[in-house]
Amino acid sequence: MRGGGQRGNQLGSGESNSCPQYTWEEVQKHNRTGDQWLVIERKVYDVSEWTKRHPGGHRVLEHYVGEDATDAFMAFHPDLQFVRKFMKPLLMGQLALTEPSQDHGKNAALVEDFRALRNRLEAQGLFRTKPLFYILYIGHILLLEALPLVLLWHFGNGWIITLLIAVMLATVQAQSGWLQHDLGHLSVFKNSTLDHLAHKFVIGHLKGASAHWWNFQHFQHHSKPNVLSKDPDLNTLQILVLGNVQPVEYGIKKLKHMPYNHQHNYFFLIGPPMLIPVVFSVYIFKTLWSKRDWVEFVWYLSYYTRFFLCYIPYYGLLGAVLLQSFVRFLESHWYVWVTQMNHIPMDIDYEKHEDWLSMQLNATCNVEQSAFNDWFTGHLNFQIEHHVFPTMPRHNYVYVAPLLRELCEKYGVQYQVKGLFEAMSDIIGSLKKSGELWLDAYLHK
């Protein structure tokens, strides 16, 4: 199981001081497709061609062109020594000695204190996994996967048994979703190759989804959460308007794809029940087909093959299809409420060029800690800690939270904690407010 990444020497620390030097103004000119520079630990890199091969997807890098990407780089890569091998050919030079380390007037003291906290957490071993946690976790998933077949064998396929089975299988899907999330963030094994392999098994064979699709979407979200035009989770297909800025823009432009002033009502009909069964299913299949990723396609098909082989003997083909659809319906409700309660009610705006800590805290909030909340949300009740330290094993969030909260208090960064039902109801309240802003702008501006 994985250990914390070693920071080691600063990137390019062995480079000569005579290498080319650049100002922030010069770096920020290179922010267009085919001409993209960024800065990591005061070193200037040309990532114009590397974006096409970047394992996390080209858009993650493109979101940081012309900026200091140091903290994002540290957040996403547990093995920095390995990544440095790919960065050496991209090195262009360094920032001039007269230039600040931070772009766009970011608070240098806050950034340095945040990095010191990260070093402290690494030294304390909080980026290392407790193997027993994940052994028990995958064990309870596999147990819930097997129990429905035992119930069918002993009691048959009556309505009560079928409903119980649907709840168990939906629980498997939700909990497997949280597990694949950990694996996708490389927070389980010491060797990231094992994380990738296990990720393909869990998301492919246990869930019937795609690791490639998930990575491409999710890392963009983490790199710029709640930033319009950068966070793909804000792409609501013009069905919803979110935050305080987008609704007014739509209203001024007289855009009325939906009656947005009623979105807090129709959300119950098209959000929780349809996201996974319809939207995700279509996107996953399109991604696998368009990328011709046949290995992941086999993992994807293995889930459905196993499911129908197990349940057609008891329900027939139509019954098994209906059971699968109902499981997805239940899972979708679970997923939507848990994942959106931390983000939709928070600040949603265009790029502000904030430091890593402030950006993540403005876009996320926590939900109160309890054994049930930890299990039910896959520890995403610690959404703040997860967003700030995405490669940290989730069972350590509870130890990190007080230290991170102390740092936020020192610099006046808002650290929000809500009750579970309060956080869920805030989704509806936020949608209602956004709809009202749209209607006002539509009618009066």
UniProtKB/TrEMBL annotation:
The keyword Oxidoreductase applies. The chain crosses the membrane at residues 132-153, 159-179, 266-285, 297-323. GO terms for biological process: fatty acid biosynthetic process. It is found in: Membrane. CDD domains: Delta6-FADS-like (cd03506). SUPFAM superfamilies: Cytochrome b5-like heme/steroid binding domain. Keywords: Fatty acid biosynthesis, Fatty acid metabolism, Lipid biosynthesis, Lipid metabolism, Membrane, Oxidoreductase, Transmembrane, Transmembrane helix. InterPro entries: Cyt_B5-like_heme/steroid-bd, Cyt_B5-like_heme/steroid_sf, FA_desaturase_dom, Fatty_acid_desaturase. Residues 1-20 are annotated as: Disordered. GO terms for molecular function: oxidoreductase activity, acting on paired donors, with oxidation of a pair of donors resulting in the reduction of molecular oxygen to two molecules of water. SMART domains: Cyt-b5 (SM01117). Gene3D superfamilies: Cytochrome b5-like heme/steroid binding domain. Pathway: Lipid metabolism; polyunsaturated fatty acid biosynthesis. Belongs to the fatty acid desaturase type 1 family. This is Cytochrome b5 heme-binding domain-containing protein. It comes from Silurus meridionalis. The lineage of its organism: Eukaryota, Metazoa, Chordata, Craniata, Vertebrata.
